User: Which sequence fits this backbone?
């Protein structure tokens, strides 16, 4: 897997939700079609609790979004 985020390679990622320090159980892959090309994918880590919140935030804006379960 290719990643540009060095943090994602060492330890388990922490939830991207503001103020949340939980270990992420999900990875959200998304992009803003208005500013990102189709080859540019942003990654957000999310814990069990915040995965629906973060996904809703993205889909409400019409951003293509895909969730992957982390091991
Ligand atoms: Zn969280």
Assistant:
């Amino acid at each position: 897997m290719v990643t540009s985020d060095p943090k994602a390679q060492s330890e388990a990622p922490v939830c991207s939700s503001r103020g949340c320090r939980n270990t992420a159980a999900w990875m959200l892959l998304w992009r803003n079609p208005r500013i990102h090309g189709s080859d540019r994918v942003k990654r957000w880590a999310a814990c069990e609790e915040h995965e629906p919140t973060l996904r809703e935030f993205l889909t409400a804006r019409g951003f293509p979004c895909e969730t992957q379960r982390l091991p």
In short: The mean pLDDT is 89.
